[in-house]
Design brief:
Blueprint: E1 4-8, H1 13-24, E2 30-33, H2 41-46, E3 54-57, E4 60-63, H3 65-75, H4 86-120, H5 127-147, H6 162-175, H7 178-184, H8 188-198, H9 201-210, H10 222-225
Parallel strand pairs: 1-2
Antiparallel strand pairs: 1-3, 3-4
Helix pairs in contact: 1-3, 1-6, 1-9, 4-5, 4-6
Length: 233
């Protein structure tokens, strides 16, 4: 019986980062779907900031995706996902930070929410949010395309690292939008990286568990779609 439990909802970008890392490390885990509990006292008891994912390992509970991913890589045997070289490890952390600051906010939280999440709830997309996101997405894609031009297979040299698993779910959500599909056409190095990632056994396995939930309403997103939290600064 697994002693690891991941708490979250099935299509969460950050939850799926953790599922990818655990699967790649061959760590058995249970998944607890928090969708019906999002924002409730039971959820806040797990994550006081009302977010996901949360990981429980034999009673040790931790939240925040980067903290969980680093813990999993170091707590369990299996393929290492951090470079040994100090400078390469610094670049890995640079990518992880960039995903949270420049990729996910505009590709997933803005564009994908407006094109995929809110329409599934019957909420019209806010085109101002989309327009605000697109030039920022273009910059992020150009940076990634340029960095992949160094000749390596993955974001940090030829070794698959946490950086790649952090980036993949956000790029996947981008690729599901019309604007994202168009923008990705002009980035052959990103396309080659995505093909390498999508061939990873962990990615194939996790995607199979996510697929039944794609396109279905994410009810807890209704609140942000109908209030000021959706507005641009």
């Amino acid at each position: 019986m697994p002693v690891v439990t991941v708490y979250g909802f099935p299509i969460s970008t950050f939850v799926n980062i953790i599922r990818l890392v655990l699967t790649h490390k061959n760590v058995a885990f249970d998944f607890h779907d928090l969708e019906p509990e999002m924002g409730s006292p039971s959820h806040l008891a797990l994550h006081p900031f009302n977010r996901v994912p949360i990981l429980d390992h034999a009673g040790f509970r931790i939240y925040e995706t980067s903290a969980i991913a680093l813990y999993v890589d170091e707590a369990f045997v299996g393929p290492a996902l951090q470079p040994k070289d100090l400078r390469e490890r610094a670049r890995m952390h640079q990518w992880i930070s960039a995903v949270g600051s420049y990729y996910y906010p505009y590709m997933s939280y803005h564009l994908s929410h407006e094109r995929l999440i809110y329409p599934a709830l019957g909420i019209a997309p806010d085109e101002k949010v989309v327009a605000h996101a697109l030039p920022r997405i273009a910059v992020a894609l150009e940076v990634m395309e340029r960095e992949l031009g160094r000749g390596q297979d993955f974001l940090v040299g030829d070794q698959l690292t946490l950086a790649d698993f952090f980036m993949l779910p956000t790029m996947t959500s981008l690729s599901m939008t019309p604007e994202g599909q168009e923008m990705l056409k002009a980035r052959p190095r990103i396309a080659a990286w995505r093909a390498r990632m999508e061939a990873q056994p962990a990615v194939v396995k996790v995607r199979a568990t996510v697929a039944p939930h794609v396109g279905k309403p994410v009810e807890h997103a209704r609140k942000s779609g109908q209030c000021h939290l959706r507005s641009l600064p």
